[in-house]
Amino acid sequence: MITWLNNGAPFPSVEQALLKPNGLLAAGGSLSANRLLDAYRQGIFPWFNTGEPILWWSPDPRMVLIPEEFKISRSLRKTLRDKSYEVRTDSAFEQVMRACAAPRCEQTGTWIHDDMIAAYTELHQMGVAHSVETWVNGNLVGGLYGISIGRMFYGESTFSHATDASKIALAHLTAQLQRWGMA
């Protein structure tokens, strides 16, 4: 049984998350900036489809990328030396989210809908949500976005319209996270 959240109700402990489906913790509430920050600080994130109640998740296990342990393949290393691209940060946040939301092969929909884009764009305006973008000849060809709180960066989604474009963004992000001493 999951908890139904009325606006302002606290999240249940992540230990109460269901095993099946893995990590489903609660439903309801709002996507306000404060609610999202509270969720992320506890290891909880929203993931739901348009027309459904907000579903809050905290799966176990979670994928954790430790920046110092990020391995760059030989082919990506060659691409990174090529420099036929430009990497920018936070110059096209909403555009990155919309590109991440675009339909992909064999998918019928996306969890990144207008409500999510509005909520995360508000976090971006607060300086908490960030994008890392790969540009070629002035065109956005890949990138990622996520939330930065304390010494953690919570990656949300990536997209790529050119070979290695999202990997380039991820490589630059992990290098920056290392420089900042983030976990």
Describe the structure.
The chain is α+β, with helices and mostly antiparallel strands and 183 residues long. Helices cover 30% and strands 25% of the residues. It is built from five helices and eight strands, in the order ββαββαβααβββα. The protein has helices at residues 33-41, 74-82, 93-101, 114-125, 165-179, and strands spanning 3-5, 24-28, 45-46, 55-57, 86-89, 129-136, 139-149, 152-160. The strands form two sheets. The chain has a four-stranded mixed β-sheet. A four-stranded antiparallel β-sheet has the order 5-6-7-8, with helices on both faces. The longest helix is centred in the C-terminal third of the chain and has 15 residues, at 165-179. The relative contact order is 0.15. The mean pLDDT is 93.
What's the topology here?
Blueprint: E1 3-5, E2 24-28, H1 33-41, E3 45-46, E4 55-57, H2 74-82, E5 86-89, H3 93-101, H4 114-125, E6 129-136, E7 139-149, E8 152-160, H5 165-179
Parallel strand pairs: 1-2
Antiparallel strand pairs: 2-4, 3-4, 5-6, 6-7, 7-8
Evaluate the radius of gyration.
17 Å
Low-confidence stretches: none
Counted by DSSP, the helix tally is: 5
Kindly state the percentage of residues in helix. 25-40%
In N-to-C order, the SSE pattern is EEHEEHEHHEEEH
Shape: globular
Protein structure class: alpha+beta
Strand order of the largest sheet: 1-2-4-3
Largest sheet: 4 strands, mixed
Work out the strand percent.
15-25%
